[in-house]
Amino acid sequence: MAAQSFKSHTKWDPLFHFVISPILLVNVILAVRHAWAYPAYTTIVAVVLAVALFLLAFKMRLYSLKVQDRLIRLEERLRLQGQLPAADLSRLSESQLVGLRFASDEEVVALAQKALAGSWTQKQIKAAIKTWRPDHFRV
Q1: Does residue 7 belong to any structural domain of this protein?
Q2: What is the pLDDT of residues 3-32, one digit of tens each?
């Protein structure tokens, strides 16, 4: 697997991003064009269904990402409890915990303390990571 870094950790799902999404977007555009040219009840229904299908695909993607974020939150809290037993980990936001998942064990404690003290964002945490811990199981 390829090494990950702050600049290369974004995951693209080729089937979703380059096949399904464009097909559904083209379907919406064609349905709207057809409804514009031939306004009728059935063409309006076709537009509504095309938009609903497009939104459904994105909602399904967002649901899987939300479940992944919840699992990451649990994993990182368990990981940090062993290394920061006295810290109030409940003050770390889900976004901060998701950002910490890429930090190596050697630097996760320092980054978590900085996040707790300075309210760092996920992007700031990721940018501060020196030794990247890859995550190849992302959705």
Answers
A1: no
A2: 777 766 777 889 999 999 999 999 999 999
> Using alpha carbons only, what angle is made at residue 72 by residues 66 and 78, rounded to the nearest 5 degrees?
145
* Spans of the chain, pLDDT less than 70: 1-2, 7-8
Q: Give pLDDT, residue 2.
A: 61
- Long-range (24+ apart) CB contacts under 8 A made by 45-53 are 50/24, 53/24, 53/27
Judge contact between 111 and 103, C-beta under 8 A. Answer: yes
Q: Report the domain count for the chain.
A: 1
Positive or negative CA dihedral for 97, 101, 106, 111? Answer: negative
- CA 28-139-3 angle, 5° bins: 120
In a domain, 97, yes or no: yes
Does some domain include residue 98? Answer: yes
The whole domain housing 114 covers: 14-128
State the pTM of this model: 0.74
Cβ proximity of 8 and 14 under 8 Å: no
